[in-house]
User: Which sequence fits this backbone?
């Protein structure tokens, strides 16, 4: 191992000397060290949904198309992205046909064909296999190899967004020859295949120690003969986020470290050492308030926080919720708790860019004056204790969230901000495992919302928000009848919203879909059911000597690792 | 002694079976779920399929019996096959598989043994080697400055947590001085002098952090045991005989003082196999301790069950070893 | 025998011998004081005699015995053994002297290394101080075992396999191994059964006769001392109170402490026993860490006068061969 690595280094050095600035050569840059503080368990992403496993395997396994850093789909192993316009997606939205690029080879030298793609679908759709990415194949009726370079996916229902299968790091293609005996119940017994999958990506697995380290070597069959620039990748796991950051930013032992959920001031201190830099990218995660539109008064007993219990005494007044939103200085929240991992947002759907509304940008800057005026105009006047009231209803709220130091910091800040507009706030935090645990018997879950407002983060997978926006329909309100299941925590109910959502589910074409999605987003924000706070992203760090890193939250962060290279 | 050993081994069987059942039951009853680590966006029906594919829909007792069969029959047969090259039966037996890696647990353990034994084992050996002379001198020169410093250092050694000493060493030697790596490279193979040096370098910090901790404990035992013996009349007898002071201390006192210390050391050996969860985590040694903690976090029941059970076996075994050692070292103790 | 002993020069001369143990306390165990366990003893032990040393528990008898044998470092004073002051000897020189003076311990169990066989225990000093062949060494071990009345075959057994009496015999055999001149017997029979006590005492007397040994016999059993000793010394709280020939001490004790001790001993003669007047001492023995300033016995002395509080009584020869430390002794 050592010997071969030295040899590689020696050859790399020799090559570097002789090349003197000429076009890069495969393997010329030697070893790349990557640290994921959660170690890779298995290199078959169909058997593990963990991000670390998906991203680890993304060096080897590739999908037909992936998302770039803006969330735009780019053809990867195919000629182009099939759409209704180019005929790749049928008019009735039930089929999508992918055209595979000619000449792509597996790392064992055999050609990559439509058979492999069809096989991958069968592999994941086999119910006894426990495929963790099965959701990407929902509604798929069949996947057939029309010819060696054409694969056709047929859906059981019209699919306005047919890009679930084979798009993105979570849905790559496996080699049929390697996995055909590993279907269904046999899947976990194929340890050798699951640990050393054959792929089309820039690297091949050389050595794998589960939950510890993966050593990759450049794929000799990779389609671009000049790439990858690195001859080996050591993909180490273990430790915690802070030590991972240290290994890149301070000791320089590693070139890249992932998911640095570390307090912002610690990270910026480390960055000041000057060995590397932080990079962040933003997906769809938003820390937000979900505002209770129903009455959480304990006196209501069983009807507490249900539609039957009646509307909320003051949060159904858009003037109040707008004032609450305006009173918050989101910049300070970002600075205090998130640093590079957060930015101000006024949207529930903050990205991809095409889907991000600009209609609510008024919330970006704090405006206490305007907030006070809104409340004054709406008839909420300060009482003797400075708390506003109207018709005997005081603006006094219970604000709950999960137990977490950043969240408690945010709570304290917001309580202070709200006091400036005459709103009284009582804070409460619930252990995360209980809060998110969903136990219908517990009064403290986020679905029950026995409070006036609650704060947490949620997101949606991929770039299409349809299933996410489905949550705020009337039918999704958690209640005793549905055992408190359903994602509509604010108990928002609008026929208009439901109708617009129906339209979205029938509309194809990214642009048209984006228009509707923005409208839906704006309705929720305008009504005050959702008060968005912070757009949360991922933070990684790379050494100054590593070039080509393009952070991406829509796909694997390592999506373009073939382009990574050394810089002086 | 032989009958004693055999009797104790036979007695260990029901004990271990009971332990294995209790571990299994506790793990089964604990709230963790193997699908809890999957992102919230994965729909419930997919989760259910995953659970079924892991065999979680079988009743508790069936899963327990299956595990017993795998652990006591399939895995030993498998090891035997690997050693002898023979194939017993059809050679196709269901092995205990981790839910996270979907690979045989025993292979994972075997893969991790080297770094755990190197780092944790070495720290234990180093710890004991440092501790014994320190304990001896501290006791011999009770209340001297050496003893005072020794007492202070060992107090620090076991009261300051390893995550603190570990971090301190990293900040000094890896961040500021840049002498030593802060991350352990498990792929390093020692083939020549330079790789040997690299191996030593990466072992220094984790080994020393743990050695400090071990040495603190053992040196206290050693000191106490020496003090006990130094005041015994037989030591005066030896002096009265006109034996050299070195003989008195090293032959008479040390040998007698080592008896309880050796037993304490033997009883601590299973900890070596248990790895050092925190230290392994800090230096990313990724040995058995880290395997266990990952298993616990991910509710990887087969992995945790097998590892904890192996620890239980080792503890029972080394208790026996300690008893036997006591019998060998101390003529006053006779079994059977 | 008594006559012979008085004529010859003393084998051991103790002059102003003290042993103070440091007291450590506090966080870093600093020395905060001393226990003066033995304080300025001066006396002789004559060649071939048995000097009995008596006193209450904790008065410093064992410490005195051990300090004389240099098992403890003396704080001050001289120990002149056969003309050599061994208090100042160190290391090798001292080690060379060791074979000539031995000790028999109070606790026969604790004084034998549990991990060595009886043979090893007895033979160990032979290796250190002699150059016997293996066979000779075995023969010597067997001879010694025989001398203390034990089976030769016991050499390969460990100490814990013996009874208390047997262990004390082993202790004696061990002490005899190097042909010593002087043996400190520190309550050699205290831990033994009454029936065995007599056997061991007889053995000691027997050996003394055969080998011409000199004994310092420590005991708190006054009748036993009366039986075995030629002269008797009485200690109180680290100090010598009185020293005289056996008969002088038992018949005419000069020190009030000796008198109190003797009054507590039952006498065989019923007539005397009937008239025996017990002197009951009041109060507790003071702590040796903080002894009284003047006479150490002054807190309990029935006849103490003012002077006793502040002036230490001199150790003087009140009558020929009869030493005492009391202001009032005539
Ligand atoms: N190693 C030691 N360190 C400190 N103090 C000691 C030590 N050995 C003895 N002493 C103290 O010295 C005093 C005399 O003790 P010593 O053992 O000489 O008494 P003793 O007359 O032999 O009593 P006993 O009849 O009980 O054997 C006691 O107060 C004891 O506590
Ligand atoms: S000196 Fe005084 S106190 Fe001491 S014994 Fe004599 S009379 Fe008693
Ligand atoms: Mg004593």
Assistant:
């Amino acid at each position: 191992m050592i010997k071969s690595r030295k040899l590689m280094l020696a050859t790399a050095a020799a090559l570097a000397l002789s090349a003197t600035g000429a076009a890069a050569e495969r393997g010329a840059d030697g070893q790349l060290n990557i640290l994921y503080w959660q170690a890779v368990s298995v290199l078959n992403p169909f058997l593990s949904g963990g991000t670390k496993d998906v991203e680890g395997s993304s060096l080897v396994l590739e999908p037909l198309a992936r998302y770039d850093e803006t969330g735009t789909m780019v053809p990867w192993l195919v000629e182009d992205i099939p759409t209704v316009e180019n005929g790749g997606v049928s008019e009735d939205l039930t089929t999508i046909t992918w055209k595979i690029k000619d000449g792509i080879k597996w790392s064992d030298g055999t050609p990559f064909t439509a058979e492999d793609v069809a096989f991958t679908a069968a592999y994941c759709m086999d119910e006894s296999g426990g495929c963790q990415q099965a959701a990407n194949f929902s509604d798929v009726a069949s996947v057939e190899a029309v010819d060696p370079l054409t694969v056709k996916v047929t859906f059981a229902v019209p699919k306005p967004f047919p890009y679930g299968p084979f798009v993105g790091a979570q849905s790559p293609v496996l080699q049929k020859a390697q996995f055909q005996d590993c279907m269904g119940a046999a899947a976990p017994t194929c340890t050798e295949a699951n640990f050393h999958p054959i792929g089309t990506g820039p690297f091949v697995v050389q050595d794998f120690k589960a939950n510890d380290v993966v050593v990759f070597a450049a794929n000799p069959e990779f389609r671009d003969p000049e790439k990858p620039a690195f001859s080996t990748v050591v993909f180490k796991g273990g430790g915690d986020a802070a030590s991972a950051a240290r290994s890149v930013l301070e000791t320089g032992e590693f070139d890249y470290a992932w998911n640095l959920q570390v307090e912002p001031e610690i990270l910026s201190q480390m960055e000041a050492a000057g060995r590397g830099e932080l990079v962040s990218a933003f997906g769809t995660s938003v820390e937000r308030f979900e505002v209770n539109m129903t009455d959480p008064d304990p006196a209501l007993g069983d009807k507490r926080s249900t539609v039957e219990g009646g509307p909320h005494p003051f949060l159904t007044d858009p003037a109040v919720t707008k004032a609450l939103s305006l009173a918050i200085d989101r910049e300070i929240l970002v600075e205090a708790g998130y640093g590079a991992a957060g930015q101000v947002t006024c949207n529930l759907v903050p990205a991809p860019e095409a889907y991000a509304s600009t209609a609510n940008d008024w919330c970006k800057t704090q405006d206490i004056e305007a907030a006070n005026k809104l409340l004054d105009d709406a008839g909420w006047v300060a009482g003797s204790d400075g708390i506003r009231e109207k018709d005997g209803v005081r603006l006094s709220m219970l604000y709950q969230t999960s137990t977490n130091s950043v969240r408690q910091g945010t709570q304290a800040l917001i309580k202070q901000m709200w006091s400036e507009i005459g709103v009284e706030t009582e804070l409460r935090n619930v252990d995360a495992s209980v809060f998110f645990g969903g136990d219908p018997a517990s009064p403290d879950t986020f679905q029950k919302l026995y409070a006036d407002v609650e704060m947490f983060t949620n997101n949606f997978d991929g770039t299409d928000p349809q299933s996410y926006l489905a949550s705020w329909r009337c039918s999704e309100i958690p209640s005793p009848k549905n055992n408190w299941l359903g994602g509509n925590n604010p108990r928002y109910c609008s026929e208009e919203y439901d109708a617009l959502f129906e339209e979205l589910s029938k509309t194809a074409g990214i642009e048209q879909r984006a228009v509707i999605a923005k409208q839906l987003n704006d309705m929720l924000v305008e009504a005050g059911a959702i008060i968005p706070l912070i757009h949360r992203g991922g933070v990684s760090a790379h050494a100054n000597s590593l070039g080509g890193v393009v952070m991406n939250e829509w796909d694997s962060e390592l999506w373009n690792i073939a382009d990574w290279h050394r810089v002086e | 002694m032989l009958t004693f050993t055999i009797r104790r081994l036979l007695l260990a069987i029901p004990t271990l079976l009971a332990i294995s059942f209790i571990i299994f039951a506790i793990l089964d009853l604990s709230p963790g779920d193997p699908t809890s680590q999957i992102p919230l966006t994965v729909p419930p029906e997919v989760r259910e399929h995953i659970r079924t594919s892991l065999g979680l829909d079988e009743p508790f007792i069936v899963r327990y019996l299956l595990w017993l069969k795998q652990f006591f029959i399939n895995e030993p047969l498998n090891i035997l096959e690997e050693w002898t090259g023979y194939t017993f039966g059809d050679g196709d037996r269901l092995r205990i598989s981790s839910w996270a890696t979907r690979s045989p647990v025993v292979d994972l353990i075997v893969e991790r043994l080297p770094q755990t034994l190197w780092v944790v084992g070495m720290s234990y050996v180093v710890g004991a080697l440092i501790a014994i002379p320190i304990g001896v001198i501290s006791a011999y020169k009770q209340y001297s400055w050496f003893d005072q410093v020794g007492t202070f250092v060992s107090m620090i050694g076991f009261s300051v947590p390893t995550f603190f000493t570990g971090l301190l060493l990293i900040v000094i030697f890896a961040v500021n001085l840049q002498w030593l790596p802060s991350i352990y490279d498990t792929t390093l193979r020692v083939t020549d002098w330079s790789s040997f040096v690299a191996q030593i370098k990466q072992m220094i910090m984790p080994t020393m952090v743990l050695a400090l901790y071990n040495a603190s404990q053992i040196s206290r035992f050693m000191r106490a045991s020496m003090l006990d013996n130094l005041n015994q009349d037989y030591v005066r007898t030896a002096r009265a005989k006109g034996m050299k002071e070195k003989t008195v201390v090293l032959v008479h006192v040390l040998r007698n003082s080592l008896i309880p210390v050796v037993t304490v050391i033997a009883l601590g050996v299973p900890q070596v196999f248990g790895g050092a969860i925190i230290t392994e985590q800090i230096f990313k040694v990724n040995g058995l301790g880290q395997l266990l903690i990952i298993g616990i976090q991910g509710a990887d029941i087969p992995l945790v069950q097998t590892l904890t059970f192996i620890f239980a076996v080792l503890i029972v075994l080394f208790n026996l070893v300690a008893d036997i050692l006591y019998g060998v070292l101390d003529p006053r103790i006779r079994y059977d | 025998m008594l006559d012979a002993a008085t004529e010859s020069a003393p084998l051991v001369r103790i002059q102003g011998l003290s042993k103070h143990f440091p007291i450590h306390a506090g966080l870093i165990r600093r020395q905060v004081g001393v226990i003066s366990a033995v304080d300025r003893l001066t006396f002789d032990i004559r060649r071939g005699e048995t000097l009995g040393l008596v006193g209450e528990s904790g008065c410093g008898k064992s410490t005195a015995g051990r300090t004389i044998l240099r098992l403890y470092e003396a704080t001050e004073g001289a120990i002149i053994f056969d003309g050599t002051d061994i208090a100042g000897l160190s290391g090798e020189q001292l080690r060379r002297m060791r074979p000539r003076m031995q000790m028999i311990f109070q606790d026969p169990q604790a004084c034998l290394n549990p991990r060595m066989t009886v043979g090893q225990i007895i033979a160990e000093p032979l290796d250190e101080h002699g150059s016997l062949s293996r066979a000779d060494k075995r023969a010597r071990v067997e001879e010694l075992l025989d001398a203390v009345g034990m089976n030769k075959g016991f050499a390969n057994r460990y100490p814990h396999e013996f009874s208390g009496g047997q262990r004390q015999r082993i202790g004696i055999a061990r002490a005899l191994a190097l042909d010593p001149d002087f043996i400190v017997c520190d309550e050699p029979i205290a831990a033994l059964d009454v029936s065995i006590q007599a056997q061991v005492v007889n053995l000691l007397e027997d050996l003394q006769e055969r080998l011409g040994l000199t004994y310092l016999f420590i005991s708190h059993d006054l009748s036993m001392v009366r039986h075995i000793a030629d002269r008797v010394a009485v200690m109180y709280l680290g100090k010598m109170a009185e020293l005289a020939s056996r008969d002088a001490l038992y018949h005419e004790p000069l020190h009030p402490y000796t008198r109190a001790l003797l009054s507590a001993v039952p006498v065989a003669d019923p007539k005397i026993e009937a008239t025996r007047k017990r002197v009951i001492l009041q109060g507790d023995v003071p702590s040796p860490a903080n002894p009284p300033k003047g006479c150490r016995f002054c807190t309990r002395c029935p006849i103490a006068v003012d002077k006793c509080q502040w002036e230490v009584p001199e150790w003087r020869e009140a009558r020929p061969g009869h030493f005492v430390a009391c202001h009032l002794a005539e």
Observations:
- Chains A and C do not touch (no CB pair under 8 Å).
- Residues 289 and 455 of chain A are 5 Å apart (CA to CA).
